[in-house]
Amino acid sequence: MGGPMLQTRVDAYPTHRIGGFPVRAGRPLPFGARPVPGGVNFSVYSTHATAMTLVLFRRGEAAPVAELPFPSSFRRGAVFAMTVFGLEEAGLDLETLEYGYRADGPFRPREGHRFDPGAILLDPYATLVGGREEWGAPHDPVYPYRARIALDDFDWEDDRPPGVAPEDTVVYELHVRGFTRHPSSGVQAPGTFAGLAERLPYLARLGVTCVELMPVFEFDELDNPRGLLNYWGYNPVGFFAPKASYAASGPYGMQVDEFKNLVKQAHRAGLEIVLDVVFNHTAEGDERGRAISFRGLDNSAYYMLTPDGHYYNFSGTGNTMNCNHPVVREFVLDCLRHWAAEFHVDGFRFDLAAILGRAPDGTVLANPPLLESLAHDPVLNHCKLIAEAWDAAGLYQVGSFPSYSRWSEWNGRYRDAVRRFVKGDLGTAGELAARMTGSTDLYGSRGPVASVNFVTSHDGFTLRDLVSYDRKHNELNGEDNRDGDSANHSWNCGHEGPTDDPGVLALRARQSRNALLLLLTSHGIPMLLAGDEMGRTQHGNNNAYCHDGPEWWLDWDLAEENADLVRFVRNAIAFRRAHPALRRREGAVGHPVTGDLPEVSWHGVRAWTPDWSPHSRLVAAMFYSGADGGHDCVYVAANSYWEGLVLELPAPPGGTAWHLFADTAAAPPHDACEPGREPPLADQARVPIGPRAVIVLVARDRPTEE
C-alpha cells in the first residue's frame, strides 16, 4: 500500500435521489434546517403524521422548485430527517432558499388531529421567516410564511454582556417600532432595530440599565378581525426569527445581523437587552384560525385541548400552548437558548407566565417542569427571568409563582398600591409601606429583587393618562369600549382629558412626579414605560394594542416640551444609583445595622410614630444601610392628603445632617437636585411636606461651619 488512507465523511454522500435532488437520511437533532458539508440537514418533529414532505422554494417565487417526500426509512421515532445535497447547483444557496413542510395524517378534530396535506407549513425552528418583510403589507394568498436559514457570519467583536446585578437594574419597556417611527425621532431608519440603536445614547444618559423589548419574534401584525392591526405583536408566528419588518435590512434578509448589532451596541453602552417572549399562545388561534405551523404539524402535542378536541383558552386569544408537554418544553428551551447564545440577549420577560405552570389539562402544577428547567438551564444561567405571574383565566400568582430562586415577577400589587395611594384612596398606607420595602410579605427570602416594581406598562394607561383620565377611552378599538381593564385606579385631577386649566395641569405634573419618585426610591427592580419620562399620551386608551400611527408613536418633541420631567427622572435614577440603601438584595425587616439604626424605620407626623390607621394618608420611611464600612441613609415621605403637613424628623446618623434631594411640590427645576449637590435643611428637626407631595432627604456630612 502507498501512503496512509484518507478518511472520508460517509455522511457527506447521498444515498437516494428524491425530487431531482441527491439526499440521504438526515440527523434527527437538532431540529430545524442546518447547513452540513455539501448540503442542508432538515429535521422536523411530528408524532402523529403519517407522511411528511419537504417543499423547496426559490425566494420570492410562488411555485415550489421541488417537493421531496421523506422515505419511511428517513424517520427516526417521531422525527423526519433528511440531508439534501446539490442545492447550490440548482440555484438555491442559503440566501435564496426557502422551504416548508406538508404533513399528512388524520383529520379528526375531536381527537385533536388537524392534518391537511394541502397546507405548506412553517418550520417551528426557522431562524428566518420570509413573506412579511414590509410592515402592514397585505398577505399574499399564494405566498405563505416560509422558512429561511440565517447565515452565521456576524462579528461580535468580543462582545461582553454588562452583567448588571438585579438590585442595580432599572428597566425601560419599549416597542421597537413605536419608539423611533415618529418623524421627530430623527433616526435614519425609523421604526427599526437600527433606529433603536441610534437612540441608545439617550437611554444611557437617562440612566436606565436594561431595555425590555416588546415582542420581536416574527408575528402577524394583520391578525385583527376588526380591520385594525395587531401592533403590539403578542401573536407569535416564528419563535426563532427576528421580525423582518422591524429591520431596515429586512427586505434583504439581514434582520438577524441588524438585531445582533442592536444588542452589541446596547452592550457597548452598558445596557442590557431583555425580550418580552410569548410562549402561552400562537397566532393560529382557535379552530377558526388558519394552520401556519404547529396546528398542521402536531396539533395535539403543541396545544392544550379539551376532551372533545377544542382549544383551552387560558391566554384569551383562542389557544394555549401545551408548555409542559416534553417536546414543547424542549422547544421553549431551545428557543431561549438560541436567543441567549446566538443573539447575546440578557434575559426574558414571559407574557402570561402562569400558563407555563399548567398541566396539559389546564390544572396548576405544584412543580412545573418547564419553569424548573428554565431556572436551572446552563445556557440561561446568567439570563434574567421575569414572569408576568398571571394569565387570562384568573390564575394570579404574584408572590407565589414557582421561582426556584431564579425568577422575578411583575408585581401587580405594587402597581395598584402606588396608584391607589397617590390617588388618595383610604386604607392604603400600610400596603404602600409593604410595597416600598420590596414586598417582603410576598417574596420573603427571595428578597426585593424578586419584585419588578412598576406603575405603568404597555398594558394600561401611560403615566400621563393615569393622571388625566378617570375612565378608559378605547372606542377606537372597535369593541364599544368593552376591552381593556376598568380597574385603573386613575384620577383625572379634576378634568377628564386635555385641558388648559393651569391648576389641573400643575397637579397632574406633581402626581406624575409622585409616582415616579416612589417607584425609583422603592426596594426592588423599577420598570419605566417608554415615554412616561416625557409625558407621552395614548389619549385615554388603556389597550392600544391595535393602533399604529403618529398619534400613537413616541413623539420625541415631548422630550423638549417636558424637559423638566426628563431631568427629574434622570436625577431620580442617578440618586437611586448613588444610594445602596435603596438597592437592597435582601429584604429590610427592621434589623439594626451594625448595632446602629434599623434597616428601615417608619415615621409619621411625629418621628418614630407611624400612622397605619385606615384614614392615614402619610407614609414616611428611613432607609439605612452600611456602605463600604460607612453609612447610607435616605428618608422618603409621601403625603396624599390635600393639605400640607409639617413632619418631625428622626435624627440622622451621627456626624450627618439632612439634605433635600427632591420635593415634588416645588416648581421645576427645584423639584429634584443633581445627586451630590443637595442643599442642607435649615431646620434639622422638622420639614414641611406639601399637599399631595413626596419628599426625599439624604443624610450627608454636616456642612463645614464658616
TrEMBL record:
Pfam families: Alpha-amylase (PF00128), CBM_48 (PF02922), ISOA1-3_C (PF21156)
Keyword Transit peptide appears in the UniProt entry: yes
CDD domains reported for this sequence: AmyAc_Glg_debranch, E_set_GDE_N
Entry keyword Membrane: no
SUPFAM superfamilies: (Trans)glycosidases, E set domains, Glycosyl hydrolase domain
Feature: compositional bias, Basic and acidic residues: 474-486
Record key words, sorted: Glycosidase, Hydrolase, Transit peptide
Superkingdom field: Bacteria
Gene3D superfamilies: Glycosidases, Golgi alpha-mannosidase II, Immunoglobulins
Domain Glycosyl hydrolase family 13 catalytic: 173-576
Segments of this protein annotated with the region Disordered: 474-496
Similarity comment: Belongs to the glycosyl hydrolase 13 family.
Name assigned to this protein: Glycogen operon protein GlgX homolog
Gene name of this polypeptide: glgX_2
